Amino acid sequence: MPIKPETILALSRKFVESRIFLTAAELDIFNLLIKNPMSSREIADTLKVTMRGITILLDALVPMGLLEKKDKMYYCPSDVASLLSKDSPTSLMPMIMHTVGGWKRWSDLTEIVRYGSEKTRPSLFDGNKSEQETFIGAMHTIAYRLAPGIVAAIKPGKAKKLLDIGGASGSYTQAFLEASPDMRATLFDLPPVVKIAQRRLATTGLYKRIKFVAGDFYEDELPAGHDLALLSAIIHQNSPVQNVELYRKIYRALAPGGRLVIRDHVMSPDHTQPASGAFFAVNMLVVTPGGDTYSFEEIKASLESAGFININLIQPDEQMSGLVEGFKP
């Protein structure tokens, strides 16, 4: 079916609603309006912004379904509030604020395509610790929803000792331990991230079954003696060479017969499906020197070069839910 001119024009304007929404999130408008409706003047005075600017922004949020307006007062609907309140357990705000940072980086896309990785920013977090915490919070927002289903698909079986590499807030560590009462886990991540995980997992009742190890998997060896290793949402940030090096470290950390499971985008051989993975590869182009999304064939070849055998696709990818396993002989 031929593409219509209207479709092309609409594509060129897709950024408009996204930018309106992200600006509202940056200004914390939704959190402000959750408890009480306010007028544009009250909002302008509270946020110390211009009356013209905030009024136009607020009015644009109404047809998007994110705010309601009645008698010159603005309201945040309850269903929106549950997703955008910072205090809500189902809040998406950490992920949204991570996207705010992504907007700034994606503005460099044309220059990066034109000139290569020399235009890529040197760090995902631009040296900003608060942005790193926002990122970990964003990953938790995604992971705590996905983790139980992912663990069920992995079927940990009789595994007793999990190594969660780059375990972030510990969402997957938690899901594994809840599914396997006899399992213990080692969560390995950067020192500031380990502290975040410790704070979050301290309230779960699982803390005594977890060993927290701070380190950098690019520089350090991984803790040894595990029969199951999870590498979740990591390989896309690495070049193929970096992934082989990491797989070799995981191989050394596993006991004989140990199993590695990778959760990530798993692309079609031509790298065009799933669409979310193709788009995410562009994100890696923007924020990393060598990251990408990889096909099963590419992942398998890298794992084999690191010594793994019996490599299988456990679950095809839809939204970074692809699962690949390999075993240490």
Domains, number: 2
Could you say what the CATH architecture of the largest domain is? 3-Layer(aba) Sandwich
Q: Could you name the ranges where pLDDT drops below 50 across 5 or more consecutive residues?
A: none
Mean pLDDT: 92
Largest sheet: 7 strands, mixed
Order of helices and strands: HHHEHHEEHHHHEHEHEEHEEHEHEE
Q: How does the helix and strand content classify structurally?
A: alpha/beta
Helix content: 40-55%
Q: Largest beta sheet: what is the strand line-up?
A: 6-5-4-7-8-12-11
User: From the structure provided, what is the oligomeric state, counting identical versus distinct chains?
Assistant: single chain
Q: Superfamily at the CATH H level of the largest domain?
A: Vaccinia Virus protein VP39
- Proportion of residues in β-strands: 15-25%
CATH topology of the largest domain: Rossmann fold
Question: What's the count of strands?
Answer: 12
**Global outline:** globular
Q: What's the arrangement of secondary structure elements?
A:
Elements lengths: L4 H8 L2 H12 L2 H5 L4 E2 H8 L3 H11 L6 E3 L2 E3 L2 H7 L8 H14 L2 H7 L13 H26 L6 E5 L5 H9 L4 E6 L1 H11 L8 E5 L11 E7 L7 H14 E11 L1 E2 L7 H13 L6 E2 H10 L3 E7 L6 E6 L2
Parallel strand pairs: 4-5, 4-7, 5-6, 7-8, 9-10
Antiparallel strand pairs: 1-3, 2-3, 8-12, 11-12
